[in-house]
Design a protein that fits this description.
Chain A: GO terms for molecular function: ATP binding; ATP hydrolysis activity. The complex is a heterodimer. Chain A is an alpha/beta fold. By secondary structure, chain B is an all-alpha fold. Chain B is built from twelve helices and two strands. Classes of the chains: A alpha/beta, B mainly alpha.
């Protein structure tokens, strides 16, 4: 059984449009204009148990709406949806026992009372009594000292670690993370990622992660689903994404003396390379390698054997960030 | 299940304790309110032994009892729900394996219990020293009163749930909340006992749930209703709890379908 199985999942919203100006506002009192917006458009998702999947897209692409349908908060307009074998919206109370959710921008802990009290209440809510797991999570995420403090006194990083424990207190088989590392420092991020990997390995927890921080995805997920304007535009391996969309490596060179661009072009004629020159510092050149068919050393050996005076060099890998930016821009 | 609701009540207790100042200032505000109405009614009586079946002492007692009862049944569930809907945090509630409405009811109960024990009881003792009131010593009347008070609490909570859930449809229901608060205080008999209203209005009020909140319990204690008069009164409260429960449920089901989570 797949953890998530969605077919032609669609969500439409009625959006109220206000008219312009005072007379428009007056007309709005009696007769409102509505426009239907399709936030998620016939999306197919299937995620097997135990997989860690990154779910990315621009702001407003429909990610949060999808997550809200998958967690049973919103009712889909149409389409078939089975999560952990349940219909999330109609079998809500049974279903939500099998999932954990962290909304990075929204706290699920009780603001005015100590963290420990929130945990106790959640244990009662989920009717679980697994102190061992709780102790271990507290240990791994290093929040033992925070337990007797009210949530409102915690820093963002401290709170987020507590949120994670709260979402996993009932050992759900499926975990939704909506921007869990937003605004966190590097150490806390690493701590959280390590913890998630551990949970995934040990309990086979399926994780669906939405984020704008692609390093999260690189660190955790083997598969990404990319959403744009309510449609899935990519679903598959992270490495394949790089191959398909990546422009290849770049070599930055600093030469001892100025060389003409055409000269460099002639030297590397046999290879798919384009050269460009830094406009400020005349000794800086950049070679853009096309695709993954050639290596940087091929280019360099050609240059060195023809006596180009290389002073410094730097090879730049394509970052996921860059690829995603390119995809967003091209739509 | 029960353990969970007990925990909900306990958490509410803790939260109330976190805001102690509210609690102290509440006692003062209630004492002032009681004083103001007691003196007002003394002026109205002006030496007359009784009006509309209330003696002057019964009237003072009625005011003190109904304000202290208000400390128990009054809560801001409507505002809390409206706020949760407005800022979208209702989403967090929906992903919990419990009934949102039931948890709200028990939160309200935790709050009410806190104020009954730490506010109404000491407050009543203080007030009985200051103002000319007379409370019965008959334990049966007290039991009748407590049962009636519990029903009054449930009816008030249900009214609050219904008003709060309106936020699902209009998204900003501040005005409705204010109107409701005033209506409940007036029509429940807190400010003026129902029997003081013109008979036409009394007949209309008989078809509204509000007198089940305050008038019936307070009247039960002050007048010491006999059993055969008390039973139909409790019956009215019971019927309202059932009717309003159905309305709450209906609105909740409809609201869940049209839910739009605001802000991300």
């Amino acid at each position: 059984m797949n953890a998530i199985q969605a077919e032609k999942l669609t969500k439409e919203f009625q959006i109220y449009q206000s008219r312009k100006g005072l007379s428009g506002a007056f007309r709005d009192l009696f007769n409102r204009n509505y426009r239907t917006i399709r936030a998620v458009n016939e999306v197919n998702i299937s995620i097997p148990q135990g997989e860690m999947v990154g779910y990315i897209g621009e702001n407003g692409a429909g990610k949060s709406t999808t997550i809200k349908m998958l967690t049973g908060i919103l009712q889909p307009t149409s389409g078939d949806l089975k999560v952990n074998g349940f219909d999330p919206h109609n079998q809500r109370e049974e279903f939500v026992k099998t999932i954990g959710v962290v909304f990075g921008q929204r706290s699920q802990l009780w603001w005015d009372i100590a963290v420990q009290e929130s945990f106790t209440l959640l244990q009662k809510v989920y009717r679980v009594d697994n102190q061992k797991l709780l102790d271990r999570m507290i240990d791994v995420l290093n929040i033992g000292e925070l337990l007797d403090q009210p949530v409102r006194k915690l820093s963002l990083g401290q709170r987020m670690r507590c949120e994670l424990v709260a979402s996993l207190i009932h050992q759900p088989s499926l975990l939704f993370l909506d921007e869990p590392t937003i605004g966190l420092d590097v150490l806390v991020k690493e701590n959280i990622r390590q913890f998630l990997r551990e949970m995934n390995k040990e309990f086979g927890t399926t994780i669906l992660l939405t984020t704008h921080d692609l390093t999260d995805i690189e660190a955790l997920c083997s598969r990404v689903i990319m959403l744009d304007k309510g449609n899935i535009i990519y679903d598959g391996d992270l490495t394949r994404l790089k191959q398909e969309w990546g422009e290849g490596k770049k070599i930055h060179l600093e030469l001892d003396q100025e060389v003409s661009l055409s000269h460099l072009g002639q030297l590397t004629e046999s290879l798919p390379v384009t050269w460009s020159k830094n406009e400020v510092n005349k000794n800086l050149f950049t070679a853009q390698l096309k695709g993954n068919s050639i290596t940087a050393s091929e280019v360099l050996s050609l240059l060195v054997t023809s006596g180009v005076p290389i002073h410094e060099m730097q090879i730049q890998e394509v970052s996921t960030e860059e690829i995603v930016r390119k995809i967003y821009q091209e739509g | 299940m029960l353990a969970m609701y007990r925990e909900v009540i306990r958490i509410r207790f803790l939260m109330m304790l976190a805001y102690r100042v509210n609690y102290y200032s509440g006692i003062i505000i209630y004492s002032i309110n009681i004083g103001a109405y007691v003196f007002l009614w003394q002026a109205v009586y002006g030496g007359k032994p009784s009006i509309e079946g209330f003696s002057a002492i019964q009237m003072a007692t009625y005011i003190a009892v109904s304000w202290m009862a208000r400390a128990f049944y009054y809560n801001n569930l409507d505002r809390e729900i409206a706020e949760e809907i407005r800022d979208g945090s209702v989403a967090i509630q929906i992903i919990r394996p419990y009934s949102y409405l039931m948890v709200k009811v028990f939160q309200g109960f935790g709050e009410g219990l806190f104020r009954l024990l730490l506010f109404s009881v000491p407050g009543m003792i203080i007030v009985s020293f200051i103002y000319p009131i007379q409370l019965t010593a008959d334990p049966i009347v007290w039991i009748q009163f407590l049962i009636s008070l519990l029903f009054g609490f449930i009816v008030n909570v249900e009214v609050n749930l219904i008003v709060g859930l309106f936020a699902f449809f209009v998204l900003n229901n501040q005005g409705i909340l204010w109107a409701k608060r005033f209506l409940v205080d007036l029509l429940s008999g807190l400010i003026i006992p129902i029997s003081f209203f013109p008979s036409v209005l009394q007949k209309i009020f008989a078809f509204l749930p509000f007198q089940a909140i305050s008038y019936i319990p307070s009247n039960t204690l002050v007048k010491g209703l006999s059993f055969d008069k008390w039973l139909p009164a409790i019956g009215v409260q019971f019927v309202w709890t059932i009717i309003l429960a159905f309305i709450c449920w209906g609105i909740w089901v409809k609201a869940r379908r049209t839910l739009i989570v605001q802000g991300g």
